[in-house]
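Example 9 (inverse folding). The structure is encoded as follows.
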C-alpha cells in the first residue's frame, strides 16, 4: 500500500503483533483458541490478497495514495469535511484495521473475564498479563522517535527485531499453556536491549549523559545485532529441545528418509 518507512507502517506492526499476542493470551486463560469475527488467518489473509491483486492490476502502490471517495466517484459535498474526502485508501485501511483491532482486543478481554467469573477466580491477574506487551510498545515508538535514522531508513530490520520479541513472548505463553503452568510469563529478555537503547538515546535529550551509540553507524549496528541476538536465542532453544521453529519436527525414520531420496 506504499506506506513506506513511516509511522503508518509502525502502526500496522503494532496491530499485527497485538492481535497475535492477545489471542494467545486469551487461549492461555480460556483454554480455547477463539478467533475474532474478523481474524488474521482468514479475513486478514483475504484482505491482503485483495490488496495485492488490486495493486497488480492498477500497476503499483501509488493507487492507494489516491482519495478513496474521489476514486469511487463520490461527489464533493459540503457535509463531507475536506480531510475526510481527501483521505487516501491507505488511511482508510488504517481506520479499518484500527476498528477491527479494538473490537478483537475487547472481545478477547471479555472472553477471559467471563471465564474467570464462571470459575470464581479474580479477574485482575489475567489483565496483568497484558503489561509485558504494552511495556515493549512503550519502548518501540520512543526509540524510533529518538532515532529517526532507524524510522526513516532502517525500519525493515527493526520490524524483524520487534517481530522476534513478540514471537518469543507468544512462545513463552504457548509453552506455559501446554505445560499447564499457572505462572504467566511476565518477562521477555529480548526487550532488554531495546530498553537500554531508549535509555542511551534519552541521555542527550535530558542533558544527563552522552549517548554511547550516537545517532548513526553505531545505532544501525546495534539494531542488526539485536536481530541476530533474537535469531540466536530462538535457534539455541530449538537446538537444545531438538525441535523446529514454526513447524513440527517428526522423529527420524531411516526407511522414510530413504524413500525420499529415491
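The amino acid assigned to each position is listed next.
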Amino acid at each position: 500500500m506504499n506506506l513506506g518507512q513511516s509511522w503508518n507502517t509502525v502502526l500496522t506492526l503494532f496491530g499485527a503483533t497485538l492481535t497475535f499476542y492477545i489471542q494467545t493470551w486469551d487461549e492461555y486463560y480460556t483454554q480455547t483458541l477463539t478467533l475474532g469475527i474478523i481474524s488474521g488467518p482468514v479475513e486478514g489473509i483475504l484482505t491482503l490478497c485483495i490488496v495485492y491483486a488490486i495493486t497488480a492490476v492498477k500497476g503499483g502502490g501509488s493507487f492507494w495514495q489516491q482519495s478513496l471517495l474521489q476514486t469511487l466517484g463520490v461527489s464533493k459535498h459540503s457535509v463531507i469535511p475536506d480531510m475526510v474526502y481527501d483521505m487516501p485508501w491507505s488511511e482508510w485501511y488504517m481506520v479499518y484495521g484500527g476498528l477491527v483491532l479494538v473490537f478483537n482486543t475487547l472481545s478477547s478481554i471479555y472472553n477471559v473475564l467471563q471465564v474467570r467469573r464462571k470459575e470464581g477466580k479474580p479477574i485482575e491477574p489475567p489483565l496483568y498479563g497484558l503489561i509485558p506487551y504494552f511495556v515493549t510498545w512503550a519502548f518501540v515508538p520512543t526509540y524510533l522517535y529518538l532515532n529517526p535514522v532507524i524510522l526513516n531508513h532502517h525500519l525493515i530490520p527493526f520490524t524483524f527485531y520487534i517481530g522476534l520479541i513478540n514471537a518469543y513472548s507468544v512462545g513463552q505463553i504457548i509453552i506455559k499453556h501446554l505445560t499447564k503452568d499457572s505462572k504467566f510469563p511476565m518477562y521477555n529478555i529480548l526487550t532488554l536491549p531495546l530498553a537500554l537503547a531508549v535509555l542511551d538515546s534519552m541521555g542527550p535529550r535530558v542533558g544527563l549523559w552522552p549517548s554511547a551509540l550516537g545517532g548513526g553507524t553505531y545505532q544501525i549496528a546495534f539494531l542488526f545485532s539485536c536481530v541476530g541476538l533474537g535469531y540466536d536465542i530462538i535457534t539455541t532453544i530449538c537446538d537444545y529441545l531438538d525441535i523446529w521453529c514454526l513447524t513440527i519436527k517428526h522423529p527420524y525414520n531411516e526407511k522414510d528418509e530413504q524413500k525420499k531420496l529415491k
